[in-house]
Amino acid sequence: MATHTDPVCGMKVDDQKTTLKSTYQDTTYYFCAQGCKTKFDEKPQQFASQQAGR
Ligand SMILES: [Zn+2]
């Protein structure tokens, strides 16, 4: 089991409980709600950049 941070709203998401995910630049992002995924899919670079730095 692993938790991921929803890049849109910052919530913790359990990857075994959600089917909402997107892959961007070889990284998989998980979302708490369809609305978050939709926002990410519209502007992935905007949200993905906030998690970069590693
Ligand atoms: Zn969310």
Q: Enumerate the spans where pLDDT stays under 50 for 5 or more consecutive residues.
A: none
> What is the helix content?
25-40%
Indicate the structural class.
Answer: alpha+beta
Alpha plus pi helix count: 2
Q: From the alpha-carbon coordinates, what is the Rg to the nearest angstrom?
A: 10 Å
Hetero ligands: zinc ion
Shape: globular
> How much β-strand is present in the residues?
25-35%
The counted number of beta strands is 4
Q: Quickly count the domains.
A: 1
Instruction: Name the strands of the widest sheet in spatial order.
Output: 1-2
Q: Kindly, what is the distance between the CA atoms of the first and last residues, rounded to a whole number of angstroms?
A: 22 Å
Summarize the structure in short.
With 54 residues, the chain is an alpha+beta fold.
Written description of the protein model:
The chain is an alpha+beta fold and 54 residues long. The chain has one domain. The chain has helices at residues 34-42, 44-51, and strands spanning 3-5, 12-14, 21-24, 27-30. A two-stranded antiparallel sheet has the order 1-2. The longest helix is centred in the C-terminal third of the chain and has 9 residues, at 34-42. The mean pLDDT is 90. Zinc ion binds at residues 6, 8-9, 11, 31-33, 36. Residues 6, 8-9, 11, 31-33, 36 line the site of zinc ion (ZN).
